[in-house]
Amino acid sequence: MTKSIVCLQPLTSRQQESILDAAPGYTLTLGDAKKPDLEVLAQAEIVIGWGKGISDTLLHPDSPFRWLQTWSAGVEKLPLERLEQRGIILTNASGVHAEPITAVIFGFMLIFTRNLHTAIRNQQERNWHSDGTESELTGKTAVIAGTGSIGSETARIAKAFRMNTIGVSRSGKPAPGFDQVYTTGQLTEAVSQADFIINTLPLTDETQDLFNADVFGACKSGAYYINIGRGATTNTEDLMAALNSGRLAGAGLDVFETEPLPSEHPLWGMEQVVITPHCAGSTDRYADRVVEIFTANMEAYLKTGTPSRNVVDYNRQY
């Protein structure tokens, strides 16, 4: 019997061939996440991507659905409890974003140390001016919350700038590229040493509003905050209070509690804030990298019944 893979994201011919080469005996059907074909999904054993309104079809008791490969690293918007109850294997796209997001993180840090954000504004006003406060990354301390693929890549590049690197993770275990790693419970102790606080965390019950007044109050004056993880890990009101008081010198923000960020939101008008529209992970190599993860997992799935990479722990929600 032919088995079915349905991908709800566009793929090139080469990417389709890669999947089929790794999945002998399977068919591959391309769908549209915005307009999913429920009849096709009702026959799928494996689904790549997700779309609204497909839960009941895929999770029907008679469905052959067994494995979901997400197109994103975050899984907080999925019906995790129902997927777990059905015993669905869930793998995410963690690792796809490491290179582009690290570039954005360093873009933010270089913008602030070299005052490039004010230089752009001065250029628009044809104003030849520098206030002489330019600095550099050498010797600065980056505290990176999350020591996974993005955090580790950021720490690796930070060492090229001769920065000090402190990680924060659930376990506090040593990790490559980090001079020291604290547990999440030691976050306030860690951020007290930071020139840059970099949030790469997923959104879980444990990380909701993790960056709040207590954490920002523990920062040394003049630190910068960068969030490329998930918006709801940060209490926006507390962040703005820290920016307005001068406790934080600035913030580079790619994610927000409400997206798109409303046009009337005060963050838009803060000159010490640089905003990007949740695009830090975007890259023209994105689909290639997801397909690489999937094909490696497909080979393991055929051999053992279980993918080998990026298997989500439902208890941890990542």
CATH homologous superfamily heading of the largest domain: NAD(P)-binding Rossmann-like Domain
Question: What does the main sheet amount to?
Answer: 7 strands, parallel
Structural class: alpha/beta
Quick one: how many beta strands? 12
Q: Quick one: overall form?
A: elongated
- Strand line-up of the largest beta sheet: 8-7-6-9-10-11-12
Percent in helix: 25-40%
CATH architectural category of the largest domain: 3-Layer(aba) Sandwich
- What name is given to the CATH topology of the largest domain? Rossmann fold
The low-confidence parts are: none
- Any idea of the CATH class of the largest domain? Alpha Beta
Distance between the termini: 33 Å
EC number: 1.1.1.81
Pfam families: 2-Hacid_dh, 2-Hacid_dh_C
Family: Belongs to the D-isomer specific 2-hydroxyacid dehydrogenase family.
Keywords: NAD, Oxidoreductase
Which short descriptors sum up this protein?
single chain; 318 residues; alpha/beta; Rossmann fold; 2 domains; 7-stranded parallel beta sheet; 5-stranded parallel beta sheet; 16% strand; D-isomer_2_OHA_DH_cat_dom
Report on this structure:
This protein has 318 residues and is α/β, with parallel strands linked by helices. The chain has two domains: 114 residues, Rossmann fold, CATH 3.40.50.720; 178 residues, NAD(P)-binding Rossmann-like Domain (Rossmann fold), CATH 3.40.50.720. The protein contains eleven helices and twelve strands. A seven-stranded parallel beta sheet has the order 8-7-6-9-10-11-12, with helices on both faces. A five-stranded parallel beta sheet has the order 2-1-3-4-5, with helices on one face. Strand 10, helix 10 and strand 11 form a beta-alpha-beta unit. The mean pLDDT is 97. It comes from Paenibacillus auburnensis. Belongs to the D-isomer specific 2-hydroxyacid dehydrogenase family.
